[in-house]
Amino acid sequence: MSDHIPSSLSAGTVDIIPSAELAQKLATGRPLTIKLGADPTAPDLHLGHAVVLRKLRDFQDAGHRIVFVIGDFTVRIGDPTGRSKTRPPLSDAEIMSHSATYFEQVGKNS
């Protein structure tokens, strides 16, 4: 890892691509805006989300702004190839319900 990226942000990573660009942006001293998008395919976030959410928290703790985007396009059409039964299209009500639980799970703990 680059010496210009704080260890709190690089810890637990294998690669930062492009690391020079991240170091340059951090060197400005301005807070970054970091976005993560997720499709509300299921009502709950899963273990696979935990790794990236933890890293987002590291950036947030370092003073950066985190934006969690809950997208709905893919979940509205399901798996367009028709090969995956685990990604069926969802109704508007299901999408809204799943989105609400994502918001609760990612939101601030009081």
List keywords for this structure.
110 residues; alpha+beta; elongated
Overview of this protein structure:
By secondary structure, this protein is α+β, with helices and mostly antiparallel strands. The protein contains five helices and two strands. The protein has helices spanning 7-10, 19-27, 47-61, 73-77, 92-106; strands at residues 33-38, 65-70. α3 links the parallel β1 and β2 (65-70). It is elongated. It starts with 6 loop residues before the first helix and ends with a helix.
Structural class, by secondary structure, is alpha+beta
- What distance separates the N and C termini? 34 Å
Q: Overall pLDDT, averaged?
A: 87
Low-confidence stretches: none
The count of helical stretches stands at 5
Number of strands: 2
Instruction: List the secondary-structure elements in sequence, H or E.
Output: HHEHEHH
Note the main sheet.
2 strands, parallel
Percent of residues in beta strands? 5-15%
Rg value? 17 Å
Helix content: 40-55%
In spatial order, strands of the major sheet run 1-2
| Overall 3D form | elongated
